[in-house]
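Um, can you check?
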Amino acid sequence: MTMPRILIAEDERHIRLALSLLLRQEGYEVEMAADGDEALHKLVHPDAPPFHLLITDIQMPELDGLELIDRLHERQITIPVIVITGYGNRKAAGKARRRRCAAYLDKPFQPEEILRRVADVLHRPALLHA
């Protein structure tokens, strides 16, 4: 059985690497992007296998996480999204919810928390991701 492919879009290198290591230890296939532009390129690349989940920071240079989600919607690309941010507030959480994000986490978070959210999102029926 092929494990789900996860894309991490995070500009803070140490967080990006820590998330990648954590998820790979659980058996997930992981790719990383340092900003929203790089993530968008990976998500729309015609020859790449599809991703099953996007984990994105909100605050990133170039194209932020919310703009990335908007671009995916414009292109009618449906993928469940977990939003993470170090700038947590009700306004950011509301913006993520309005974009139908599957989950929202404030940094710092515990490894068990992100693993639980990833498992929950990946095992939801497909209709809940739309």
In short: Strands lie at 5-9, 29-33, 53-57, 81-85, 103-106. The chain has a mean pLDDT of 89. Helices lie at 13-25, 36-44, 65-74, 90-98, 111-122.
